[in-house]
Amino acid sequence: MSSNKALFAQRRDGRVAALQYLFAWSINKPTNLSDDICTFLQTQEKPREHYAFGEELIHGVVTNAADIDERIRALAHNWDFDRIAKIDLAIMRLAIFEMVYRKDIPPVVSINEAIDLSKLFSNADAKRFINGILDRLKDQLGRDSRKVEKPE
């Protein structure tokens, strides 16, 4: 497998693990996040190092949850935040964290990954809703959605 394909597969595994963790976190917040993440990663198929990207995403989403949720509330026109399915919320939190805080990932990559995750873990209608929210955010970012933003 080429190194790009291997990195893509590892990042996908990381996103899936992060999504699963964030879904559980949204239902039952742990008292000790680090211990809880460690315990969760021990249940995964591969060694913890394999999920390093996913672990970064988990910490990023949890740390920035208030800002991310506020963005979702502002973008989800005519939707009651508390009625958004927990799995869809976890998918959007993950993608929004990447789009806003991870300049090393082009926003369209984050959107495509979110759509793929919604196809795997949510219902058929979810991808349109998720895509609509993330597309609105993409238009507000003020950066090229197809490029990595280099640090200054």
Keywords for this entry:
7 helices, single chain, mainly alpha, 0% strand, 152 residues, N-utilizing Substance Protein B Homolog, Chain A, globular
How is this structure best summarized?
The protein is an all-alpha fold and 152 residues long.
Describe what you observe in this structure.
68% of the residues lie in helices and 0% in strands. The chain has one domain: N-utilizing Substance Protein B Homolog, Chain A. The protein is mostly helical. It contains seven helices and no strands. The protein starts with a helix and ends in a 12-residue tail after the last helix.
The CATH architecture assignment turns out to be Orthogonal Bundle
Inertia-based shape: globular
When the domains are counted, the total is: 1
User: Rounded to an integer, what's the Rg over CA atoms?
Assistant: 15 Å
Total helical segments: 7
Low-confidence stretches: none
Query: Roughly what percent helix?
Result: 55-70%
Total number of β-strand segments? 0
Oligomer: single chain
Give the termini separation: 33 Å
Order of helices and strands: HHHHHHH
Strand content: under 5%
The CATH class, by name, is: Mainly Alpha
Mean pLDDT: 93
How are the SSEs ordered, and which strands pair?
Layout: H1 3-27, H2 33-42, H3 52-63, H4 65-75, H5 86-101, H6 107-121, H7 126-140
Helix pairs in contact: 1-3, 1-5, 3-5, 4-5, 5-6, 5-7, 6-7
